[in-house]
Structures are given as C-alpha cells and as structure tokens.
Specification:
Strand order of the largest sheet: 11-12-13-14-15-16-17
Shape: globular
Radius of gyration: 26 Å
Strand content: 5-15%
DNA sequence: GCCGTTTTCGGCCCGACTGTTTTCAGTCG
C-alpha cells in the first residue's frame, strides 16, 4: 500500500486539532507546520520513511525527531499509537465539525466536554434543542450560525475548481468596474497564482471609501449570503464559493496585492530577503529601516520606499516583478536577483491544440465544427484525436482500428476546406502494462498519436508510462497521471524518470487543461522542463467552448516555469509537423 | 514540538471581525 504525502499531512493536522482542542500550547502549530511541509514534499515521504527511517524523515523542514518517529510508525504499522489515544480521549469527527464556518478545534473541544457533541448530527440537534447557547461562552448568535453552517458543511468539503472560481472572480471585477468608489481591483490569493483548486476567491479593491465598496459588494448580484462585513473587509457566499474582499487605500494597493497574493512561503522568503538589506516589507509597503533602531516598532516604521504598485515593491528590493504563478519559494527570488527569471509561456503563444474530440467518439461537434472553432480562436492547426477502444474506453465510444482509418480519411477531406491545418490522430489507451490499444500499422497512418491512461489509475505508473513514451509512434502522453481533482489522485509517477525518457524519445508530455484534471500539475511541469522534455498544453476539448480551457493549461504550465520554447503547440504548424514526424 | 548569525533554552505572526465577555477568546486568512 502506498501512503500519500497528503494522507500523512492530514493525520498531522488532525493531531494538531486534537491537541488544540485540549488547550495544548505551541504543539498544534508545530504539527501544522510539519503537515504543510510533508504535503509539499516533492517525493514520497512514505518511501523516505521506509528507506531512511526517522533520520531521513526528520530532514524535512519543520519535522523533528518526535514527528519523524510518528510518521515512520504510521508507514510501518498503519497507525500512530498516540493519535489513537487522543482520538479516544476526544472521540469527535474533527474534520467534519471544523468544516463548519466559525467552528474551530477549541469550539469542538468545549462542545464535546459540555454536551458530548461528536458528529455533525450531534451538533445540529444540540443547536436545534437550544443546548449550545446554554454553554458558557456561547450565545444565541453562535448557535444560529452553527445551525446555518452545518447544512453548508455537509455538501461543501471540496475545494473549488478554477472553472468555478475564475469566472466568478471575473464577474466581480467587472461589477466593481462600474462602482464609483472602486479605483482599482484585482484578484489575489491562490486564484491569482492559478493553483488547480481554490479554497476561496480573494479580491482586493483600492478605495478611499471602504464602506461604500463593502456596501456595493453586499449588493453584488451573485451574493447569496453575507458571512461577515466590516469597513475594510467582508466575505460573502456566491454560487457556493466563499468570496473575500479587502479594501485598501489606493496608495498601498501594490503592497496589499503583493501581500495577499502570497504564497505565504514566498512572502516569508521575500521578507527575509528584505531584512538582509535593511529593508522591511509588509502589506503596507517596503520601508527603509536602516536608520531605525526598532524596525518592529510599528506597521509603517522607516522611510517608505514603495507601496503603490507591485512592480515598485519588487523594484524597491532591486528585483524584477515576479509572475504570481511562480511565487512559491521554489527559487524564484534567487532567479530574480540573478536576472534568470524565465520568460513564461503566454496564452497568446499557443498556436493550436493537439488533443481534441469530435462526435465520432464522445465529443459533441463535427470535425468541421471543431476546425471552425479553432480557426475562430486564431489557431494555425488542430489535431483531431478521437478515442480508440481499449481499457477504460468502451466500444461505441471509442473507435476500433478500421474505424480509425476511416475517420482519419474524413479528417483529411475536411482539411481541404478548413481554415486551419488539421492533423489526423487518435487518443489511444495505455494498458496496465504500458502497451497501446491500437495496432502499430494503424498508428503509422496517423499524424498525431496521443496515448493516455484511462484504466488502472492507481499505484505506481512510472514503468507503464515510460513504455508508452518510448513507443515510436507516440507523440504526446495525454493526462499522464489520470488524476481528477476532488475525485481521484491518479497514478504515482517518478517524474524525473518519465521526463528523461520523454526527452530521449522525443515525446511531449501533456498539460491537460481540463479544469477537472490539470495533469501534469505545475510542480511536475517544473521537473519535466528541467530535464529537457517538451510539454504540450492541450484542452482535450469535447466541444468548441472547451477550447477556452487553454487558459487554465497555460497558467498551469507557467507554474512549472515553462517558457514558450518548452511548449510544442507554441510552435508553428511546420514546427509541429517536424516534431510529429 | 521545533529551531537557532537571537543557538541547546526560550521563544513561537498578526490584524480584522464576531460574539460574548465588562477586557477578551476564537476563528480566519
């Protein structure tokens, strides 16, 4: 059994919550920090535990001897004795209960002590019975808020996909354009960094009249429910997504935008970079504190150097502006200081799509319709890669060998009248052993062969995927891990090995831009690019509108530091033809 | 429980908001 990093991290977070509920000091924070670093650790922590034991695991940042021992214990035995004891002492469904807005570990602990509340059902019936407001420290408002929060917590434990959060943020920004009190506004937070899933939407507005902006926010047509509102910040629920607004004065907009975009790790590293240069950076600006004795004496201590724009904020530290997608403290500050920031691929660089479907398999549009949609986007070419039959794709959806050849002929006929170059192709299935579901002589007849895993999507997939990229007919490895956000984790993959094999074989690795997939993810793109392999940003579109997903794919590739030269479909048609041959 | 050009013990980010509290605790980002 493989133990995933996020599984270990979740256990450590439960540890933290249980300790916090018991009013233990400082340890909860230690467990949470360790959990974050375990979750972000680039390799399998379980493998590390098995191969190098406690000393290896304690090499992870913020993981010391005690937590390392617990991780090893979990990997070896499947449980942690001390966590089991804590669970017995406080037998509550911690994750579910803290999912209620406004309910944290301490509240859970107190309600368990006072009322024996263990589950969402318990807390709901206690609230209905009026028992909660009778507990010291709780009142009718809190009880009512819990009651309202329970219903939402039941259905919404998931993180939002970009395809939910991004359009919502655009809608709010457009609305604010018409609000007089708003001078400027911008998305911040993980959405601006284009993380594949979003906890909530953060929007920042510049105004000298915070109350007017908050009032307008409350009247936004998408607002379903007000969560809280003050004079400088407010939160609402809109289409099931939490939207947080902050209002700052225009002079400090850049500082606030930088601060609230994060990531937290990037900001900590940047703060330290500033301190080393006798500067101080926070959400109000960059300050020169070289002449100040106590730089911690206040929020705006020292001589203000920059605050109005983000570029000026970085410029005050002698750094070029760093694109939000790479603000993850993965070396971007050093690269910026050295003048080595990548020239990231842009959406306008994309010249075509190499993984699309038509009504010949499970798409909803004809070859001609998809070609017209590609032309309308200004593309130079489109590959028609309908499903082949095979593991994970049933006959009736996928095409067999004979149907593939007929379909390729129809693509060639359509190409004569199309305003873009058309490549005939297929999305073949990769079997559990790494073989393809289409015969070699059929593959040889097609311009563009995408090979993707559609079945047996768990366990280590490296051997199988390496075999597929080394197949001479394969041009693109489609959605390599097969993950689906909020649904399944997909294959475990040694991306270094896969990237090396792909670079040697001249096969591109896909960033599938479908917002349910985003596979490869940004971190994997970084490894792929570093090892010299080529990336293809494809939408896997099953209808013309899905070609728009390219936005999500490009920003995911940018999270992996991909430049235009790394991206196959940023080349012109001849360049792509040369690669496919 | 973790960590150290504040280094082996003594600290651990912090401000806004809400609700309950008569001066503050819990949650959230």
């Amino acid at each position: 059994m493989t133990v995933r990093n996020d599984e270990v991290a979740t256990l450590l977070e439960e540890f933290a919550d249980l300790l916090e509920a018991k009013d233990v000091e400082y340890k909860p924070r230690a467990y949470r920090l360790a959990a974050e670093n375990v979750r972000d650790y680039p390799e399998s922590v379980a493998d590390l535990a098995r191969e190098e034991g406690e000393s290896g695991v304690s090499e992870i940042n913020r993981v010391g001897d005690a937590i390392a021992a617990k991780i090893v214990e979990y990997v070896e035995s499947g449980e942690i004795a001390e966590l089991e004891e804590l669970r017995e002492e406080l037998p509550v469904e911690m994750g579910a209960l803290t999912g209620i807005e406004g309910v944290g570990p301490k509240t859970v602990g107190r309600l368990y002590e006072a009322l024996g509340v263990r589950t969402l059902e318990d807390i709901e019936s206690a609230a209905r019975a009026g028992e909660i407001q009778a507990v010291k420290g709780f009142g009718p408002k809190t009880e009512q808020n819990i009651l309202e929060g329970v219903a939402f917590a039941r259905q919404s434990t998931r993180r939002q996909l970009l395809s939910d959060a991004y359009p919502l943020s655009r809608s709010l920004l457009e609305y604010f354009e018409g609000v007089e009190a708003v001078e400027r506004c911008e998305t911040a937070g993980s959405l601006r960094r284009w993380k594949p899933t979003i906890g909530d939407v953060d929007v920042l507005a510049a105004s000298d009249d915070g109350e007017a902006v908050v009032d307008a926010f409350r009247e936004w047509e998408e607002t379903d429910e007000l969560i809280e509102a003050g004079t400088s910040k407010a939160s609402v629920r809109a289409k099931g997504v939490r939207v947080d607004l902050r209002v700052v004065v225009p002079e400090e907009f850049g500082a606030a935008l930088q601060y609230f975009t994060g990531s937290k790790d990037h900001n900590i590293a940047l703060r330290n970079y500033a301190i080393e240069r006798d500067m101080k950076i926070n959400e109000y600006g960059v300050f020169d504190v070289s002449a100040i004795e106590d730089a911690d004496a206040g929020q705006r201590v020292g001589e203000l150097v920059a605050s109005e724009s983000e570029a000026a904020m970085y410029g005050a530290l002698d750094l070029p502006w760093i694109p939000p997608e790479i603000r993850e403290n993965r070396g971007e500050i050093a690269a910026a200081a050295d003048g080595d920031l990548p020239d990231l691929v842009a959406e306008a660089d994309v010249r075509g799509d190499l993984h699309t479907h038509t009504d010949a398999s499970d798409g909803r549009e004809t070859i001609e319709g998809m070609a017209a949609a590609a032309a309308e986007r200004g593309y130079d070419y489109l590959a028609v890669t309908d499903h082949a039959t095979g593991p994970g794709v049933v006959g009736g959806v996928g095409l067999d060998d004979e149907e593939l050849l007929t379909h390729a002929e129809r693509v060639r006929e359509a190409a004569a009248d199309a305003d873009v170059a058309l490549f005939s192709g297929v999305e073949a299935n990769i079997t559990a052993d790494g073989e393809l579901s289409v015969s070699d002589d059929v593959l040889a007849e097609l311009d563009c062969v995408v090979a993707s895993p559609h079945a047996a999507l768990d366990g280590d997939g490296t051997d199988r995927l390496v075999r597929a990229v080394e197949h001479p007919a394969v041009d693109v490895l489609g959605h390599p891990t097969g993950r689906q956000l909020n649904r399944r984790a997909g294959l475990d993959v040694d991306f270094e090995r896969l990237a090396t094999a792909a670079a040697d074989a001249g096969t591109a690795l896909e960033v599938n831009a479908n917002p349910n997939r985003l596979d490869l993810r940004g971190g994997a793109v970084g490894i792929v690019v570093e090892h010299g392999a080529t990336v293809a940003v494809n939408t896997d579109a099953h209808a013309p509108t899905s070609l728009d997903y390219v936005t999500y794919g490009v920003h995911t590739a940018r999270r992996g530091w991909a430049e235009s030269a790394d991206v196959l479909n940023a080349r012109d048609a001849d360049g792509v033809r040369a690669f496919l041959e």
